Amino acid sequence: MADRLSRYREKRDPTRTSEPEVRPGKRPRRRRRQAPRFVIQKHAATRLHYDFRLEVDGTLRSWAVPKGLSTDPRVKRLAVEVEDHPLEYADFEGVIGEGSYGAGAVIVWDAGTYRNLDEERSMAETLASGHAKVWLDGQKLRGGWTLQRTRGGEKPQWLVIKRRDEAADARRRPESTQPASVKTGRTVEQVATGR
Ligand code: MN
Q: Does some domain include residue 6?
């Protein structure tokens, strides 16, 4: 199996960053009997964005979503696919230091479990096909979202769109009304200033 975490490792100097370290040759963790996890980390890097991550086959498939996931089915949000992250990253909250890749503060903005809504194909298969459907059970976000790849290549681009289900809500703005970490209650500004 290809080492899906090699890009994660190459971008980071473990002696400089507080993020989880992945040693070469480390096998992805298997958590087969539990529902797979998802996490959305708010990341105050050079440009503020939300990192959306889904546990798939032992690593976290990851997208940088500049505006976060909308709960309004009419809104399409750009999601740029980035390198897989290790499962331990789902709990990471802290400051990535100046000079390191992704420098800036990170909080766990939402977390929970998810389900693949495609009954025919595995999550890895739906992502490889460029069209996936997931049901998120988070503390802030709940319901179905579609992931549609619109451009391949080095940095594949996707659109993430709320599905029309009972959890859709065009009026919610959780990024503004619920800004704090679901893990520690801190805002990304508080984490950045060390409070
Ligand atoms: Mn990020």
A: no
